[in-house]
Backbone:
């Protein structure tokens, strides 16, 4: 009975993975297909990627997305890391933890509408800065979740030993806590970068005229019925970035567990 159950779970897992990855693999395959329309194969080509490189709208959107994602990941990791450090050293703080966890579980559309209403209320001009603030505000929660366990793993006796040897509080943080928390910091930067770079809903609600990121360009072209091969190439680039960050993040998590 146990053997049958194991085999059933294997089949179920295989079918689940096929269902999840088949559409993704189809998009990736089409991005290298010389045929312009799906359903036929005319050989391998990089033509669609070259056309993307000549598309100024795509290039500008990629630069915008990279700028927002990079700054948001660094800012949210710094801000969330400071909070994580403080509450990790302070001890139990379940109420504060709940405040940080809430943005992770509430629907993104609610977050986006609340941000938009706030921007309208204060009269902010929508564009790069409103997108950056919106992404950072909610990425802080992910940074807090990623970094707090890392800081709690560091024994207070290490901190006490550093103080006993004459270290200042800033030196203790920079020379003791920061190196020991480095895997968590890298994980936080990667996960927040990935979430910011391919975010659509929050960006659509908080951006203004003339500022687009790649997800907005993909949506705009797909909505106009322009599901072209260039769009497949664009989606493949986003998939590759997400897979790379996910792989590095997973390596960091497993490395921490082995330690």
Residues:
């Amino acid at each position: 009975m146990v053997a049958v159950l194991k085999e059933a779970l294997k089949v179920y897992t295989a079918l689940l993975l096929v269902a999840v990855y088949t559409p993704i693999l189809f998009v990736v395959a089409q991005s290298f297909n010389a045929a312009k329309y799906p359903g036929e194969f005319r050989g391998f080509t990089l033509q669609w990627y070259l056309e993307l490189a000549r598309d100024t709208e795509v290039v500008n959107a990629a630069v915008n997305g990279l700028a927002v994602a990079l700054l948001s990941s660094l800012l949210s990791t710094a801000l969330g890391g400071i909070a994580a450090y403080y509450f990790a050293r302070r001890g139990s703080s379940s109420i504060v933890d709940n405040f940080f966890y809430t943005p992770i579980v509430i629907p993104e559309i609610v977050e986006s509408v609340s941000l938009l209403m706030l921007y309208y209320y204060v009269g902010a001009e929508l564009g790069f800065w409103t997108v950056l603030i919106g992404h950072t505000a909610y990425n802080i929660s992910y940074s807090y979740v990623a970094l707090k366990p890392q800081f709690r793993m560091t024994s207070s006796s290490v901190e006490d030993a550093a103080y006993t040897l004459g270290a200042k509080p800033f030196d203790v943080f920079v020379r003791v806590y920061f190196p020991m928390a480095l895997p968590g910091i890298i994980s936080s930067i990667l996960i927040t970068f990935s979430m910011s770079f391919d975010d659509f809903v929050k960006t659509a609600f908080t951006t203004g005229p003339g500022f687009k990121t790649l997800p907005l360009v993909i949506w705009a072209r797909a909505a106009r019925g322009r599901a072209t091969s260039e769009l497949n190439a664009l989606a493949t680039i986003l998939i590759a970035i997400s897979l790379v960050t996910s792989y590095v993040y997973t390596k960091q998590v497993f490395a921490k567990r082995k330690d």
Summary: The two ends are 37 Å apart (CA to CA). The chain has a mean pLDDT of 83.
